[in-house]
Write a structure and sequence with these properties.
Helix 2 packs across helix 3. Strands 1-2 form a two-stranded antiparallel sheet. It has one domain: Transmembrane di-heme cytochromes, Chain C (Fumarate Reductase Cytochrome B subunit, Up-down Bundle), CATH 1.20.950. The protein is built from 4 helices and 2 strands; from the N terminus they run αααββα. It has 185 residues and is mainly alpha-helical. It is a multi-pass membrane protein.
Length: 185
């Protein structure tokens, strides 16, 4: 099978670390919101799970801002697929939507709390509310957040599927670019 282009080097340690940190945070946030349904409304455990889901969302937002800043600084390898190819366009579009969702999900989660007039606690710090509660606004924000969350789940599955396709079908080295290097100094 073909290999990646010689000029398509690996990502650096910072990019790899931020990628995997983001992946773990997103998967944990998804797992927590799914676990929330195991507990009845009003249960302290359910409220605790929701709080941790929000806290992880904030960390996702921070990690994403760091990723965007690192990427904007020009610290990334050339795309593995030839520029302008269908594969390159598809990969760029998928990554663009993933980044958009990595920003939109935490912000829409915050919008749900603010619109509902609920207190917003960030790792023990109480943040002031910017608006009084509105059931209609909270319902709309929640719908948007859940829709974006479902899209994120689908895109994460597609992203993992594409990485595995590159690894086991194409055998082109694309996945290895984002894996931590073995024995690296």
């Amino acid at each position: 099978m073909s290999t990646i282009r010689a000029d398509a080097a690996r990502y650096d340690r910072v990019a790899i670390g931020l990628h995997w940190l983001s992946a773990l945070l997103v998967l944990a946030a998804i797992a927590l919101i799914e676990v929330k349904g195991w507990f009845p409304r009003g249960d302290a455990l359910r409220d605790g799970v929701k709080l941790w889901h929000f806290q992880l969302g904030v960390l996702v937002l921070l990690a994403t801002c760091c990723r965007i800043a690192w990427r904007a600084a020009g610290r990334r390898p050339e795309p593995a697929a030839p520029r302008g190819s269908r594969q390159a366009r598809l990969a760029a579009a998928a990554h663009g939507v993933l980044y958009l969702l990595l920003l939109a999900l935490p912000l829409s989660g915050l919008a749900v709390l603010v619109a509902a007039g609920k207190p917003v606690s960030l790792f023990g710090w109480e943040l002031p509310l910017w608006a009084e509660g509105s059931k209609a606004a909270a319902k709309t924000a929640k719908r948007l957040h859940e829709t974006a969350g479902n899209l994120m789940i689908a895109l994460v599955a597609a992203h993992v599927g594409a990485a595995l396709w590159h690894r086991f079908v194409r055998r082109d080295g694309v996945l290895a670019r984002m894996l931590p290097a073995r024995g690296a100094h």
